[in-house]
Amino acid sequence: MAQATQARGVSRAPGRELPGRRNRFRRALPDLVAYGLLTAAGGVFMVPLIWLFSTSLKMPGHEFVLPPEWIPNPARWANYTEAFQVRPFALFTRNTMVVVVGSTMLILTALAHQSIRGHRQPGKAADAELPERSGAPGIAPAIVATGGER
User: How far is the C-alpha of 18 from the C-alpha of 110, rounded, in Å?
Assistant: First the structure.
């Protein structure tokens, strides 16, 4: 049996190194590299957003000048008020909300339906349970009456 030794109040088996700064650095190195790579990738992905914002403040016709002008001089904040006057953004927002809410409800309904159908009661036939637990009362009786989905 290996004997445990005491050093600085830490019990350790023979042949094992005490955790020191070098070992902590070796353990942290993969995390540091990963964080560095993720930060660099985040910076690369931010470039188009910065360019978008910079271009939104430029005067008309100065979007594609060479060399690129990252900070427009002068910054034209009136571009935003003009955009809201020219285009019906309230209509765009309403249409987006209809699509988002509708698709979310459709997905949640399908997930709930699948969850309910997955919980069969012992002793009940699948077809006897379908109309009351389907979530679609107008469709389910027609499926049962025609023989089901076989």
Answer: 56
Query: Tokens 């995390």 sit at which residue?
Result: 31
76: DSSP letter:
-
Helices 126-133 and 89-118 meet at what angle, rounded to 10? 150
C-alpha atoms less than 13 angstroms from C-alpha of 88 in its C-beta half-sphere: 5
Q: Give the SS3 label for residue 16.
A: coil
Question: Which of 39, 77, 72, 45 has its CA nearest to residue 58?
Answer: 72
The tens place of each residue's pLDDT in the chain, 150 residues long, gives 445 555 455 555 555 555 566 777 788 888 999 999 999 999 999 999 999 999 999 998 888 888 888 899 888 999 998 888 888 888 999 999 999 999 999 999 988 888 887 666 566 655 555 555 545 555 545 444 444 454
DSSP assignment letter at 81: H
CB-based contact 55:63 (threshold 8 Å): yes
- In terms of pTM, does the model score above 0.70? no
Q: Return the domain boundaries, the chain.
A: 22-87
Distances (CA, A) of 121 to 67, 115, 134: 71, 13, 14
